[in-house]
Amino acid sequence: MSERTEVQVRPGVEEDLDALTDIYNHYVRETPITFDTAVFTPEERRPWLLSHPVDGPHRLMVATDADTQEILGYATSSPYRVKPAYGTSVEVTVYVAPHAGRRGVGTLLYEALFEALADEDLHRAYAGIAQPNEASTRLHERFGFRHVGTYREVGRKFGRYWDVAWYEKEL
């Protein structure tokens, strides 16, 4: 059996909060992939989790190891902007546990996320990718995202400025 077949994807639930927070906090502490600069407690992340129900346009999909049920990563679709006219647009993202990279987890998560969103009243998905991040760029392009522009030096973290490349996909 390949490693890819050992991963299952399902909607996220409240019991996942500790593991999801741990994964996210790794990226907060160690990378410019997120522009958050302070780690979160699970309680601080609870509103984020609850803003992604099991139906509707704002979803949370979780990848788990089929044998151990360890959470290997997650993908979300979230509001693109808060104003009503943006309601048919979502921002999507994927976070994979540091030890679970290169197993196809991100691909499985996006496959499940976009399948779940297929019947929603959505027009576009957007993804902001802090640069450089070749793996994320490849993942998004594989799913039909196209580069629409780059915000130069838009975020400062670890004592330097970072660009964010923006990608869009028709839904």
TrEMBL record:
<dbReference type="InterPro" id="IPR016181">
    <property type="entry name" value="Acyl_CoA_acyltransferase"/>
</dbReference>
<feature type="domain" description="N-acetyltransferase">
    <location>
        <begin position="7"/>
        <end position="171"/>
    </location>
</feature>
<protein>
    <submittedName>
        <fullName>GNAT family N-acetyltransferase</fullName>
    </submittedName>
</protein>
<keyword id="KW-0012">Acyltransferase</keyword>
<keyword id="KW-0808">Transferase</keyword>
<dbReference type="InterPro" id="IPR000182">
    <property type="entry name" value="GNAT_dom"/>
</dbReference>
<dbReference type="Pfam" id="PF13420">
    <property type="entry name" value="Acetyltransf_4"/>
</dbReference>
